[in-house]
Amino acid sequence: MAAQTEKKEIVIIGGGIIGCTSAYFLSRHPAYDPSKHKITLLEASKIAGGASGKAGGLLALWAYPSSIVPLSYRLHAELAKEHGGESKWGYRRVHCGQLSAKGRTGQSKGTLNGKPANGESISLNKRDEKALGKVAAAGLPKDLDWVAPECVRSYYEMGDPDTTAQVHPHYFTTAMADLAKEKGVEIILGSVSNIDTSDGEGVRSVAYEDKTTKEPHTIPATDVIVSAGPWTRRVYPPAPISGMRAHSVTITPSKPISAYSIFTEISLPPDFGNKDTFLKSKRPHSKTVTPEIYARPNNEAYACGEGDHLVPLPKTTEAVETDLDRCQDIIDYVSSVSDELRDGEVTVRQACYLPNVEASSGGPLIGQTGVKGLLLAAGHTCWGIQNGPGTGKLISEFVFDGKAKSASIGSLDPRKVL
Fold this sequence. Notes:
Layout: H1 2-5, E1 8-13, H2 17-26, E2 37-43, H3 51-54, E3 58-60, H4 69-83, H5 85-88, E4 92-93, E5 95-102, E6 111-112, E7 115-116, H6 129-138, E8 152-159, E9 164-166, H7 169-182, E10 186-196, E11 205-210, E12 216-220, E13 223-226, H8 232-235, E14 241-252, E15 260-267, E16 288-289, E17 292-296, E18 300-304, H9 324-335, H10 339-342, E19 345-357, E20 365-368, E21 374-378, H11 384-401
Parallel strand pairs: 1-2, 1-13, 2-10, 5-15, 13-21
Antiparallel strand pairs: 3-9, 4-9, 5-8, 6-7, 10-11, 11-12, 14-18, 14-19, 15-16, 15-17, 17-18, 20-21
């Protein structure tokens, strides 16, 4: 009861999905009283400026870790119902599958950066009876009609609308931040320079530099949640969190595409990128590539490629370097199996860093650190959007109830690796 009645100065570090959902659930915990509890969220650049604004947004009951996935998946549905998530952040149930395909070389039909030169798009791969028979034999659903039939080798379903859904990460994260602000959470743009635990009694304050004025400030703190994604170690050095760069693109297809999220395995022909007129990047290609493709509402497709460690983690999300050749690779790969994507308009080329836990136990790490009042919520890898609500809910319980109540997460205890 003491944890509920004492005055609290709660500071959240990081304005990605974990920080914003933590702010949301802290401000809605039954014990939260804005007259005596202060919640401040510190973000170095902008809300959802990193992976939380550039991820795919896939939600799945078959994601990991199993200790928090069911909780978080359920909370996603509840949040969407309560706040109009279908219209505000693109929440919807989807199909998900694994596609094995053979990529094509061929002409891009006069495209420039993926956009038809004459403003017209005409598919040359008609789905005649022979093509439809091949698709059926491969197990491809009839309404997954934006994959070229001649490319399909096999398809199997990984999830259906009962177990799989999606959101638009940027819209979802910013909505969580806005809803937290409505309940009194203060959001400050500034880079954290120090978490003061010098007296050995726990956290005392957080120091930061204001993004606009560059002036230093210090705010008191009784509870600090470090949720800075791949930047977590910069704020709290003991945290075994690293970053992996990942590239992605968004495409407006040449015609609307059905609601599928596809994990692909595409075998490229030996002359891919050499003897055709696609706008290929000049980098060498692997024999097999594995881009992911997510159809989104409002006729948008999101596609991402494999990660890399070629460029060190920059100071902030605003300084992330995008390799346009890697983006072009993704465009080329998905174009090799889909006319609708090949003939569409590329609208965004981007990169971000995903947070990984450098420990055999894996991640994420959620809970107490061993320092009184200092909590860690980081290392969610590619499932940060999926597990954001569950993590935020649990963090609110750690702060106001002294322990996690909604899920058993002993395996995610940060103290095991710190």
